[in-house]
Design goal:
The structure is a single chain. The protein is mainly alpha-helical. It has one domain (5-99). 64% of the residues lie in helices and 4% in strands. It contains four helices and two strands. It has a two-stranded antiparallel ribbon with strand order 1-2. A hairpin with a 2-residue loop joins strand 1 (94-95) and strand 2. Helix 1 (5-25) runs parallel beside helix 3. The chain is elongated and about 60 Å long. The protein starts with a helix and ends with a strand.
């Protein structure tokens, strides 16, 4: 079956967000490009009228699911281990070595 338009847009947003995070945090993205996923979908289903089938969506989401925990850990580490910037101190977001408003 064809993936609904809303689900397709959510998938693309998730894919691109994870891809950009992976490139920033790891310098690598181990999942094939969207163009390859679409090409595979058309080859397998021989249907140019459907943008993406559920089977292809499931395949891509399973690959993202395997990478996601590591990406989330690295993102948290990146944020929590990064010292406050001079700009954050200057505009008052950081006081006494902590972000303002946090305890």
């Amino acid at each position: 079956m064809e993936v609904e338009e809303d689900d397709h847009l959510q998938f693309r947003a998730l894919y691109e967000s994870c891809r950009m995070a992976s490139l920033y945090l790891e310098g690598d993205w181990k999942i094939e490009p969207l163009s390859e996923l679409y090409k595979k979908d058309r080859t397998e289903w021989k249907d140019d009228s459907v943008r993406l089938h559920e089977k292809t969506l499931d395949y891509a989401l399973q690959k993202i699911e395997k990478l996601f925990p590591q990406l989330a850990r690295k993102a948290v580490e990146s944020v929590t281990e990064c010292p406050p910037s001079a700009l954050m101190r200057q505009i008052g977001w950081v006081e006494e070595g902590r972000i303002s408003g946090s305890s």
